[in-house]
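User: Hey, quick favor. My workstation is busy. Could you predict this chain's structure for me?
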Amino acid sequence: MDSEADSAGPGDPADAPFVTDPDAGAACWVCPSLRLPRAAFTTADRPSQDWPFSPADGYRYLADGTPVCVHPGRLGLTAEHTAPPPLAARPPEAPFTDHVH
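Assistant: No problem, here it is.
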């Protein structure tokens, strides 16, 4: 019979939230690290329109549905994704030149 230490279960540390002391103040109050294990979320260098905020749970998500921490430095992590420049900092689109007469 396998020992309890050999089997993953509800008490498995891999299932524990990455941040175990929410009162330490490192993580934002909506950070996925407060409720999810490290393998269940990714990190980005900052907020972006490319990983929008979900009002349903407060997380930001990649297009594939993976929750995103946008302040990984606070947790001692590095960013796995780099946000594009904000819309205001991007070059303007070419002007519309097709005029209707």
